[in-house]
Model the fold of this input.
Amino acid sequence: MTRYIVNGRKPLFGEIDISGAKNAAVAIIPAALMVNGICRIENVPQISDVTMFFHILEEMGASVRTINKNTMEIDCSRINKAEATSDLMRKIRASYYLIGAMLSRFGEATVAMPGGCNFGGVRPIDQHIKGFEAMGAEVEVLNGMIICRTQGGLKGASVYMDVVSVGATINVMLAAALAKGTTIIENAAREPHIVDLANFLNSMGADIRGAGTNVIKIRGVSQLHGGTYSIIPDQIEAGTYMAAVAGAGGDVLIKNVIPKHMDCISCKLREMGVSVIDYEDSIRVSRTSPSRKTNVKTLPYPGFPTDMQPQISAVLCLAQGTSIISEGVWDNRYKYVDELSKMGARIKVDGRTAVIEGVTKLSGAPIRAMDLRAGAALVIAGLCANGTTCIEGVNYIERGYESIIEKLQGVGADIHEEFTPDDDGLKTASVG
Ligand code: EPU
Done:
């Protein structure tokens, strides 16, 4: 078992480099399946969700080559079966993008039901299925498999999303890229990673317009060619470190970001009395006086991201005054609240709303991460707390944060991993 040990109350100073975006990477990697040739992908984050996806493609027959730490080459030309049934499929949510990619390339797909972070509620895929059916697929869910068939491939269609869904927008975009005719997605999600996927596909020969608005028009093309593409910086990773500085205090330059993508988070931090200064591709965050309460409502982009809700809540635990959080995307994303309460936070949750009464201090405690962003929130709480915080369940955190320990140590945080001897015999020592 691996745990993070955090000794808090040390302000952060220095620079942090942001990695490639997880949620763009997990859409672009399966899209490589649709490409006739080799895709060289740069700025690939080294995180377990991405590694798992490469293993899934390799099990399917793809060749995946590491060029350097963050550059990979994928060649899917030898994959000739429209099946992804590996057990690994159930370990990541984004594995369901293989449905769109396979339907596009083969006109059929048999894919194991996806896994991913469980916020305590259901994560439906009805909008994905609605899109595939509109394009002529027959979809059946049988024995934990999603089975899609078409007669001679998908046909372009008009798809109206009943809810703004990142996953359904991406899956339908993938499916439509090689379909016959034009597909129009209305009420599409607008997240930066949707634009990044469209840019990736267009750079390989697709014809997609409007990504980043709520109407996306995809003219199907007959094939995609290989090429090189660099993934955008991770908005949520950057936001997490911005929140860490807002919580722990200090002055940090967050490098390799697209400041425009960060506006929804930067504005909230400024409301809280944190200084946030944008440069061309970096953001300087500093806090020297106590932060103030604010209210946060999470919404699809360009609203405040749900994937930053736990982290901003951790910071607000120590802000002056009472803050109200409304979760506008997921039904139950407050599973971390019990853990923060063990550290002295005062939070009351009622349905999708949390009321956070700011306290003057948090105290270190043994706590457990229940999902990726909740885990990031606990790390932030540990950085702000008096004494030592011991965080279990860090495998969740490593799904989405490349080198989190090293990046935080680099700005002066007192955090390290501790491995117990039964950790598969791989990691046996406590490292500083
Ligand atoms: N929804 C439906 N039907 C569908 C799909 C979604 O009702 O067919 C609902 C969901 O229940 C939810 C809302 O629509 O209430 C939004 O879900 P969405 O489909 O946008 O989420 P997702 O694609 O499953 C992605 C990210 C999540 C992030 C959400 C929202 C990936 C791999 N995951 O999930 O990221 O929270 O968008 O922005 O891109 C994370 O990175 O920690 C994470 C969980």
User: Anything to note?
Assistant: The longest strand covers residues 35-42. Residues 253 and 284 are 4 Å apart (CA to CA).
